Amino acid sequence: MSGFFHNDIRVSKLPLQEIIDEIREEVGPFLSQGKVADYIPELGRVKPEQFGMAVTLLNGQTFETGQSRDNFSIQSISKVFALTIAFAEWGDQLWLKVGREPSGNPFNSLVQLEHEAGKPRNPFINAGALVVADSIVSRFSEPTDMIIDFMHEISGNSGLEMDSNVFDSEKEHGHRNAALAHFMKSYGNMESEVNEVLNFYFGHCSVRMNCFDLAHAFLYLANHGKHPLTAKVYLAASQAKRINSLMLTCGTYDAAGDFAFRVGLPGKSGVGGGIAAIIPGCMSIGVWSPGLDKHGNSLAGIKALELFTTKTEISIF
User: Going from the N-terminus, what domains does the chain have, and what CATH number goes with each?
Assistant: First the structure.
């Protein structure tokens, strides 16, 4: 059963509830080993020893364990949603402004930008996400409302909203992101006013979701750009393939190679402790545990996903 597959019958025979309950028990020792993202003070107040997981099949059947309905700040997971909107609007022109290569550096690094004339390596490091944010702000009059409405649609939860405390905390302490934006503006790689871009960026990063929401929200990427529960098409199949490939190679920052090695799925992490992952043609997964490793990824979350692909013998490889 190893390797990529999307056979509904074989998936339906897997004891998924039993598997994720086992995983919840097995990741217990890892919950105290991570460190919450205290460089954003509001996130630093979250208790690290928490864990939730949800697995949603393309037919909507969902398996949950732990604190799967506890809301948390999705942070950089939201970059996938912004990229979806920008890629659908700009098409391949978007890649003139942002690259598609792993960075090999921390997600908020300034170093590479100077060497590469203000063009970020990929859309999931902070600099790249700011360029993506600019591409949306420059085209739409109410970008924050639009991306939150998009999250409502794909998650099926119309109650999702920004956490104003996290937004304010990010804005007050977002000097590094402001520096990145101004630096790219100096190279002509940002059209809009920096403050407008930052407000939009901090806004979508501060939205609160839970594992159940995340698993439903990523179904369109597990189904070639078409949400299987609503039949709405958000991306062409080739565009969904490209976003999935970027999640695999860049979705966990400078730990992407290790994530591919251990987990073997396209995924996107956030410093709020969430990770969303997909198995194309099969399912999507949301996992959350606030304690982070040194790369800014959920320590127990990555372990849970590694255990999931090991126990189910499903990955894209």
Answer: 8-76+207-312 (3.40.710.10), 78-205 (3.40.710.10)
Q: Interior CA angle at 314 toward 312 and 317, to 5°?
A: 150
Residue 79 is among the residues annotated as catalytic for this protein? yes
Residues 6+ apart with CB under 8 A from 6: 279, 280, 281, 282
pLDDT in tens, 22-38: 999 999 999 999 999 98
Which position among 131, 185, 194, 201 bears the catalytic label?
Answer: 201
If you write DSSP's letter for every residue of 130-147 in order, what string do you get? HHHHHHHHTT-SSHHHHH
List beta partners, residue 55: 63, 285
CA distance 315 to 317: 5
Catalytic residue among 73, 76, 155, 192: 76
Tokens of 62: 């969902």
Query: pTM of the prediction?
Result: 0.95
Of 97, 253, 287, 298, the active-site residue reads 253
Alpha-carbon distance 127 to 111, whole Å? 11
Instruction: Respond yes or no: is residue 269 known to be catalytic.
Output: no
Dump pLDDT digits (tens) for 254-292. 899 999 999 999 999 999 999 999 999 999 999 999 999
Give CA–CA dist 251/79, Å, rounded: 10
Contact predicate 196/135, CB 8 Å:
no
Residues in the chain: 317
**Is 271 assigned a catalytic role?**
yes
